[in-house]
Request: fold
Amino acid sequence: MRVPAPGPLSRARLLTSPSLGPSVVRELERITGRPAGAADAVAPDGPFVYVGDVLPEALRSPRLLWFHSVNAGTDALLAAGPWPEHALLTRTVGRMGERIAQYTLGWILAECQSVAEHVGQHARARWQRLPSELLAGRTAVVHGTGHIGSAVAGLLGACGLRTVGVGRTPRAVPAGFDRVVLAGSDEEAAALADARWVVSTLPLTGATERFFGAARFTAMRGAGFVNVGRGATVDMAALEDALRSGAVSRAVLDVLPDEPAGPGDPAWRLPRTVITSHSSGITADEDVVNDFAACWEAVAEGRAPALTVDIRRGY
Reply:
């Protein structure tokens, strides 16, 4: 994937998705120094840059120089069809790592402080002391050692948890982790057996689909499971079996394989599970503007933006 050359970029039209608010569009116009046009059913005659949530089929054109996604995940975008050759793809991350880290910590603390049980007792006007659990000295295994995984590990580590990252390839230990092990290794199995909580921040790729299956859930030996990555990385039938057997003590699922989940989705009936409707890392307008500005500066200088998506890897 190439960075757009200065010439075509200088004369490229700026197109924006109808989903973007007026204040975001105004900021994009300020950053690029050109007016924004609405995405039509036909691609423009000349080169164009598009900012939005999805890429319409009509805009999957050789004239597309660059698509900036307002979302962090690009799996659905790439699954919709072949990516236009030579078109740059960047994504929005913003403060998502911080938001998802706080979400994860919040649910872990809620379990430690028996929040759901206290709420239930309050509703019944029942006075009964419940035990609490300290985080310090426990182990959290975080699958995914990128931006979001590192943010999650850093916040959990600040509360005294030991943090073990699980990655697909050998690498230096990223900030926030005490150590990193390879997926599928004996070290991962040992870490899962020692874990009090297992957190998934995995993107959805060919390598991560149904990544969490019977073998991994059985290895957890009673850990809590939090999924803030992608729903299809989990074998839901295997998760249900693990919850019913006790191999997984509780689950917090911010994502599901099929979204939005209708009232009849069996996920709503999983025991000891809370579903939070893909809300752990909602993108704010300022995230879109700030990340696009950083990408625009890099592209204008002929550099590949830090938020460039590797089409082959899918993230």
Remarks:
- The first helix runs from residue 6 to 10.
- Residues 6-94+283-300 form a domain with the Rossmann fold fold (CATH 3.40.50.720).
